[in-house]
Amino acid sequence: MPATASKNRWGHRATAAAAGGGGSNGSDGATTRLEVGSSSSRNGSAPGLGTQAGAESTPPPRELLPGHLAAIMDGNGRWAAARGLPPVFGYQAGIDALRTVIHCCLDWGVPCLTVYGFSMENWRRPALEVDALLALIERALAAEVASLAARGVRLRFIGELGMLPPSLQRQIRSAELATGDNSRLHLTVALSYSGRQDLTLAVQEIARLSATGELRPCDITPALIAQHLATQQLPTQMQQPDLVIRTSGERRLSNFLLWESAYSELYFSDVFWPDFGEGELAAALREYAARDRRYGGRPSSINSADSSDTSTG
C-alpha cells in the first residue's frame, strides 16, 4: 500500500510537472553546451581554479568506487565573475565539467550519479539570470540526450518540476523517455529541488494514509519514508549516495538529499565547478576509497548503514 501511494505521488507529479535534481542556496546551478575552451585553457590565475593538467587522474580500483556519487555543482557564477563575464558564461562552461564527470563515471564504473542543477532557493535570483539558466538547461538537454542514450545513460529528474517552463518540462519528458531502457549509468538531475520540501511532501502523504486508516503509526519506518521521497525512483541499492562532492570551497549540503545523505561521505573541493575535471574527480574518489566507513559503529561490527549506533567515537 505505501508503494502504491508513492507511485501515485510521482505519477501525479509527473503529469503536472513532466516526471520526476540544482545548485543550492549557495550554488551557482547547472550548465549548458556552449564551448568556452578546454580544461587547460580555462585554468589561469583566477581564484578557485582546478589543477586538471597536472592532477593524477587514476581512479581507485572499481571495487572501491562509490555505487552512488552525488555532486553539488557550485561556483559557476564566481568562475565567470573572476573573468569579468556574466554568470551565464559560468553556466555554459560548467557543462564541460559535467560532461567530463559523466564520461568518467561511465569509463571507470560508477553506476549512479546525482547532480544538483537548480535549487528551490535559486528562484530568488534575478529573473533574467534564472530565465537564461533554464533556457541553457533546455538547450543542453536537446543537444546531449542522444549521445547520453547511446552510451547507456538513464536520465531522471527530481524536484518541483511543475515550476519549470512548459517547454523545459517537455524536454525533460522526452529525455526520460529516450533513455528509459538504459541502466549503465543512472543520472539524476535535481531541478527546482529542496530536500526539506521533499521530506515535507513525504510526511504529508504518510499523514494522509494514516488518517484514512491505511497506515498505523507503527508502520511508519525509515524504509517507508524513503519510499515516499523523490529518490525512490532509483534502484533500491542506489538511493543513498555513498559520496557527496561539493565544489567552490563551500562546506555545507545546502538542502540537497538531506535524508539520503545521512551516512554519505562528504568531500569538499576549493575548485569552482567549471574547473572540476578528471584529475579532481579521481582525487576525490581516491580519498573516498581510503576512508573507513563505520556508520557509527566499529570497523569489525559494520553490517550496513542501518546501524542503530550513531555515535561519533
UniProtKB/TrEMBL annotation:
**Which InterPro entries does this chain map to?**
UPP_synth-like, UPP_synth-like_CS, UPP_synth-like_sf
**Entry's EC annotation:** 2.5.1.-
Keywords (alphabetical) are: Transferase
Required cofactor(s): Mg(2+)
Q: Does the keyword Transferase apply?
A: yes
Q: Which GO terms describe its biological process?
A: polyprenol biosynthetic process
**A Pfam family the protein falls into:** Prenyltransf
Q: Which Gene3D superfamilies match?
A: Decaprenyl diphosphate synthase-like
Annotated Low complexity bias: 300-313
Give the source's domain of life in one word: Eukaryota
Q: Where is this region: Disordered?
A: 1-66, 293-313
Which terms does the record give in the GO molecular function aspect? Answer: ditrans,polycis-polyprenyl diphosphate synthase [(2E,6E)-farnesyl diphosphate specific] activity
What the entry lists under PANTHER family is as follows:
DEHYDRODOLICHYL DIPHOSPHATE SYNTHASE 2, DEHYDRODOLICHYL DIPHOSPHATE SYNTHASE FAMILY MEMBER
Q: Of which family is this protein a member?
A: Belongs to the UPP synthase family.
Instruction: Note the HAMAP family from the entry.
Output: ISPT (MF_01139)
Protein's recorded name: Alkyl transferase
Source organism (scientific name): Chlorella vulgaris (Green alga)
